[in-house]
Amino acid sequence: MPVPIFGHRFGRSGVSDTVTIPERSGVAFTLSSGQTLTVIDPKGMQVADLLAFNARDMDEVISSGRTLDYAETIRLTTGHSLYSNRSNILLEIVEDSVGLHDFLLTPCSRETFVHFYPDLPQHRGCFGNLAAALEPYGVLPDRIPVAFNCFMNVPVDGATGKLRVEPPVSKAGDRIVFRAAMDLVIGLTACSAPASNGGSFKPIAYRVD
Ligand SMILES: [Zn+2]
């Protein structure tokens, strides 16, 4: 399948107006080196899962393990970089009005719903939404890694290691801004899991500058 990456889709012409991702859905798009991606929580208390691939070699992909190793913290915010599986910087966080995000947990999926919400209607979740959005770029589902979960609130008990998923602390209009360090393919969702989003599903907005 041809991969619609290069040509006119790169360059400053890629600057966008603010785009809304409807609740429980996802998108994929290109982001040129040097451009910024602003992810906005328009209503508050809503998670957005973010993936990034090297647009020129899709085997290079965002890596939670590399990033947390180099950052020496799980609290990533302004000044931190998000690394690839090859230890290259894909994105730098240049602005962050929340300061509380997650890079431990994988995108919610149909199996997540079976595990945590057996009595609720099933949903393909962020995983299914990312897989569908990234399919035109040649990404198979098994290549989807841990996402950077913007605004997701996962407190860790430092003594026991116990994880919890709490409602995001983001308020309406809060944002996190990333600068691309190379040409990228981005996957981005409005998360579908009840616990991650304070029990209700809201849109996410983004813009490219
Ligand atoms: Zn999700």
Automatic annotation (TrEMBL):
Pfam families: DUF1989 (PF09347). Residues 20-185 form the DUF1989 domain. InterPro entries: DUF1989. This is Urea carboxylase-associated family protein. It comes from Sphingomonas immobilis.
